[in-house]
Write a structure and sequence with these properties.
The structure holds two protein chains of two kinds.
Chain A: H1 3-14, H2 22-25, H3 30-59, H4 69-104, H5 112-131, H6 157-185, H7 198-229, H8 243-260, H9 263-277, H10 284-297, H11 313-325, H12 327-341, H13 350-373, H14 375-381, H15 385-415, H16 421-447, H17 462-489, H18 525-530
Helix pairs in contact in A: 3-4, 3-5, 3-17, 4-6, 4-15, 5-6, 6-7, 7-8, 7-9, 7-10, 9-12, 9-13, 9-15, 10-12, 13-15, 13-16, 15-16, 16-17
Chain B: H1 3-42, E1 65-73, E2 79-83, E3 87-90, E4 95-104, E5 110-119, H2 121-124, E6 127-132, E7 138-140, E8 145-154, E9 164-173, H3 174-181
Parallel strand pairs in B: 1-9
Antiparallel strand pairs in B: 1-3, 2-4, 4-8, 5-7, 5-9, 6-8
The chains are: A mainly alpha, B alpha+beta.
C-alpha cells in the first residue's frame, strides 16, 4: 500500500462524530445510520402498536363503542403498513447497517452517502403516510393489500398513500443495493462466501429478494395511480382491465416480502443460539442452502393468497404443493437450531430466551401456514381470524422477537454497557405470555368463522375477543419495559469486548462500545476467530 | 484492496444491481400482457372471446346444455339491464340467439360497456360469442331503451361434467369511469 493511502487512513482515524444535529442529518457512518434506523423503527413500532390497541379496544366487546367503522378500517390498514414497512423492515436494515460491516471486517457500508439517503427518505415517507390521518376522507382504509376497486375509493389520501409506498420502496431498494455491494466487495480478505456469518448470509439473500420484488410493488401501485388519475384501465373492468390481476401482481411482491421480513430473523437467531449453547452453528452450509431455497420458492407460491378468487384445479394444486414444499427447508432450519442446542452448555440470558421463544412460536405460525396452504381448507379459513393468528405468530413472536433478541445481544457492543438482565427477563416473560394470550385465541375465532377486518362481531365470539384484547394491552405495556431497558442501559455495567462467554465472530474482537471507525485495515477473519477457541 | 479499484468494482456492481431493479420494475408491467395471454389461453377468470369469432356449426343433438343469463349493473351506472329469457337449453355446436334489454335511466346521453364473464371457468373457453353487444361500447340517448343482441355457440368439446353454463354481464357507465379518473 502506498504511503499516501496510509496517510489518508491515519487521518481518517482521528476525527470522531460531528457535533450537534448535523451528525445525524448528514451522517455517512454505518453505526450512526444503523442507530437511526433502529430508533425510527422503535418509534414506528410504538405508533403502530397504538393503532393495534385502538383495534383491540373496539373488538374487546361486541358492538361499536369507540370508533366509527371507517376509522376502524383506517386503523387496520395503517397498523399493517406501519408495522411492515416502518417497524420490521427498517429494524432489520438497522441491524444490517450496524452489524454487517463489523461482522465481515469492512470499515463502513460500501455506498455511505446512499446509505444516508435510504434512511432519511423513511421519515418523509411515514410523515406523508401519517399525515393522511388528518385528511378529508381519512387515511387509507382498504387494507394494506390495496386491492382495487376498493382502494380507488380512498379520499384525498390516495395519492399520498401511493407516493409514500414509492418512497418506502426506494429506501428499501437503496438499502438492499448497499448491503449486497458491501457483502460482495468488502469482506475481510480471507472470508470466503461460505465462511460468512449466518446473519450476513440471510441478509445477502434478503437484499436480492428486495431488489427483485420492491420494484414490482412500485409498478403495481403506479398502475393504481394511473388508473385513478390518468385514464388507464389496468384494474378497471369497464375499460377492459381486471381487478384480480392486481392481486396477482401484489402477491408476486407480497409473498417474497414475508420472507424479507423473516430471513434476517433466521440470521439473528442463528447467531445467538450458538453463543448461548457454546457450540458452533450446526449445519452452517445447509442453513445457507435452506435460506436460498426458501427465497427461490417464495417466487412461485403467490397465488396461495388467492385460492378463493377462482383458479383452475391445476393452478390450485401447483400453488398448494409448492407452498407446502417450503416446510422442508424451514424444517431444516428448525432442526439445525435444535441440533445446535443439543448437548450444548446452555445458559438463558435474555437474547437466548427471545431466540428460543422464536424457534418455538415461529414454528406454530409455520404450522398454521401449512394449514392455510391446503387449498380446499383455505376456502374455509380465508379472510378469517385464523389468518390473522397465523401471520401475527410469524411476525410478532417471529420477526419482532428476533429483532428484540438481536437488540439485547448486540446492545452491549453498541453502547459499551450491559442492560439490566432482570428487566430484560421481565420484558421477555411478559411479552411471551401476553403475545400468546393475544394471538392464540384468534385461531379459535377464525376456525369458528369470525371474519377479519370487521369492527363488530356476533356475540358468540365475545370471550376469545375479550381475552385477546387483554393480551394486547399486556403486550403493549410490556414493550414500555423494553424502552426502559434501553434508557437504563446507558448507566449499566461496563461490557467486555467479547460480551458473551460463548460468542464468536469478528464483531466481538472490537472494543465495546465499537469505535466510531472500525476495521480501517481489514482483519484476518480466521485468526480472529481462532482466538476464541 | 486499493481504494480506487474498490470504488470501481462498487460502481460496476451497483450498476448491475440497478439494472436488476429496472428489469423488475419492467417485469411488473410485463405481467399485464402476460396475464392477458394467460387468461385467453386458459379462460382463467371466466374470460371469453372479446371480438367476433367465426365458427362452423356442428350440432350435437344428443347433448343438452342449460345456459343461464345473469346481469349486474355497476353501482355507479344509471342503467337497467335484463335478459329477455332467464335461461335457454341448447345443443353444443348449434348457433343460438338471445336478446337483452337495456335502458338508460338518466336524463342525459350515456355510453355503456358490458363486460362478460362465464362460469364455470372450465366452460369459458368453450363458450364462443359470434356477435355480442359487449364487443363495443353502446351509446344511449336520454331514457332510451333498446334490445341488445347476443349470438353464441357452445363448443362440442365442452367437458362432459359441465351441464350448466352461466353467462354474466356487468354493465358499466364508461363516462363514470372517466369521471372517477378526473376526481
Amino acid at each position: 500500500m502506498s504511503s499516501t493511502v496510509a496517510d489518508a487512513l491515519d487521518h481518517h482515524d482521528e476525527h470522531g462524530p460531528a457535533k450537534g444535529i448535523g451528525r445525524w442529518l448528514f451522517s455517512t457512518n454505518h453505526k450512526d445510520i444503523g442507530t437511526m434506523y433502529l430508533v425510527f423503527s422503535l418509534a414506528m413500532f410504538l405508533i403502530g402498536g397504538l393503532m393495534a390497541l385502538v383495534i383491540r379496544s373496539e373488538l374487546a366487546v361486541p358492538g361499536l363503542q369507540f370508533v366509527h367503522p371507517e376509522v376502524f378500517n383506517q386503523m387496520t390498514t395503517m397498523h399493517a403498513l406501519i408495522m411492515v414497512f416502518g417497524a420490521v423492515m427498517p429494524a432489520f436494515v438497522g441491524l444490517a447497517n450496524w452489524m454487517i460491516p463489523l461482522m465481515i471486517g469492512a470499515p463502513d457500508m460500501a455506498l455511505p452517502r446512499m446509505n444516508n439517503w435510504s434512511f432519511w427518505i423513511l421519515p418523509v415517507a411515514f410523515g406523508i403516510l401519517l399525515s393522511t390521518l388528518l385528511m378529508p376522507g381519512g387515511a387509507p382504509a382498504s387494507g394494506w393489500t390495496m386491492y382495487p376497486p376498493l382502494v380507488l375509493q380512498t379520499g384525498d389520501a390516495f395519492p399520498f398513500l401511493i407516493f409514500s409506498v414509492h418512497l418506502m420502496g426506494l429506501s428499501s431498494i437503496m438499502g438492499a443495493i448497499n448491503v449486497i455491494v458491501t457483502i460482495i466487495n468488502m469482506r475481510a480478505p480471507d472470508m470466503s462466501l461460505l465462511k460468512m456469518p449466518m446473519f450476513v448470509w440471510t441478509w445477502l439473500i434478503t437484499a436480492y429478494l428486495l431488489i427483485a420484488v420492491m420494484p414490482v410493488l412500485a409498478g403495481a401501485v403506479t398502475m393504481l395511480l394511473t388508473d385513478q388519475f390518468f385514464g388507464t384501465s389496468f384494474f378497471l373492468a369497464a375499460g377492459g382491465g381486471d381487478p384480480v390481476m392486481f392481486q396477482h401482481i401484489f402477491w408476486f411482491f407480497g409473498h417474497p416480502e414475508v420472507y424479507i421480513m423473516i430471513l434476517p430473523a433466521f440470521g439473528v437467531v442463528s447467531e445467538i443460539i450458538p453463543t448461548f449453547s457454546r457450540k458452533h452453528l450446526f449445519g452452517h452450509d445447509s442453513m445457507v442452502y435452506a435460506a436460498s431455497s426458501i427465497a427461490f420458492l417464495s417466487f412461485i407460491v403467490w397465488a396461495h393468497h388467492m385460492f378463493t378468487v377462482g383458479m383452475p384445479l391445476t393452478g390450485q394444486m401447483f400453488f398448494m404443493f409448492a407452498t407446502m414444499l417450503i416446510a422442508v427447508p424451514t424444517g431444516v432450519k428448525v432442526f439445525n437450531w435444535v441440533a445446535t442446542m443439543w448437548r450444548g452448555a446452555m445458559t438463558f440470558e435474555t437474547p437466548m430466551l427471545f431466540s428460543l421463544a422464536f424457534v418455538f412460536l415461529f414454528t406454530i405460525g409455520g404450522f398454521s401456514g401449512l394449514m392455510l396452504a391446503i387449498a380446499p381448507a383455505d376456502i374455509q379459513y380465508h379472510d378469517t381470524y385464523f389468518v390473522v393468528a397465523h401471520f401475527h405468530y410469524v411476525l410478532v413472536p417471529g420477526s419482532i422477537f428476533a429483532i428484540m433478541a438481536g437488540a439485547y445481544y448486540w446492545l452491549p457492543k453498541w453502547t459499551g454497557h450491559m442492560y439490566s438482565e432482570r428487566l430484560g427477563k421481565l420484558h421477555f416473560w411478559s411479552s411471551t405470555i401476553f403475545v400468546n394470550v393475544t394471538f392464540f385465541p384468534m385461531h379459535f375465532l377464525g376456525l369458528a368463522g369470525m371474519p377479519r377486518r370487521i369492527p363488530d362481531y356476533s356475540t358468540q365470539f365475545t370471550d376469545f375477543n375479550t381475552i385477546a384484547s387483554i393480551g394486547a394491552f399486556g403486550f403493549g405495556l410490556s414493550q414500555l419495559i423494553f424502552v426502559w431497558v434501553l434508557v437504563s442501559a446507558w448507566k449499566g455495567q461496563k461490557a467486555t469486548d467479547r460480551v458473551w462467554e460463548g460468542s464468536h465472530g469478528l464483531e466481538w474482537t472490537l472494543p465495546s462500545p465499537a469505535p466510531y471507525h472500525s476495521w480501517d485495515t481489514p482483519p484476518k477473519a480466521r485468526i480472529a476467530n481462532e482466538a476464541f477457541e | 484492496m486499493k481504494p480506487d479499484s474498490q470504488s470501481k468494482s462498487h460502481r460496476s456492481l451497483t450498476l448491475a444491481l440497478l439494472a436488476i431493479v429496472a428489469g423488475a420494475f419492467g417485469f411488473g408491467y410485463l405481467l399485464v400482457p402476460l396475464y392477458d395471454v394467460f387468461c385467453e389461453i386458459t379462460g382463467f377468470g371466466g374470460r371469453t372471446n372479446a371480438t367476433a369469432a367465426v365458427v362452423e356449426e356442428a350440432p350435437d343433438m344428443s347433448r343438452e346444455i342449460r345456459v343461464e343469463f345473469v346481469t349486474t349493473v355497476n353501482s355507479y351506472a344509471p342503467f337497467e339491464l335484463a335478459a329477455d329469457v332467464d335461461s335457454m337449453t341448447v345443443h353444443p355446436g348449434k348457433m343460438y340467439f338471445a336478446t337483452f334489454t337495456a335502458k338508460n335511466l338518466a336524463s342525459a346521453d350515456k355510453v355503456a360497456q358490458a363486460v362478460p364473464s362465464v362460469a364455470p371457468v372450465s366452460a369459458a373457453e368453450h363458450f364462443t360469442k359470434i356477435d355480442c353487444f359487449c364487443f363495443t361500447s353502446q351509446e344511449f340517448t336520454a331514457f332510451e331503451a333498446r334490445a341488445m343482441p347476443l349470438q353464441f355457440i357452445v363448443d362440442p368439446e365442452l367437458p362432459d361434467y359441465v351441464d350448466t353454463i352461466t353467462l354474466q354481464y356487468t354493465f358499466y357507465d364508461t363516462a363514470r369511469a372517466a369521471a372517477i379518473n378526473t376526481f
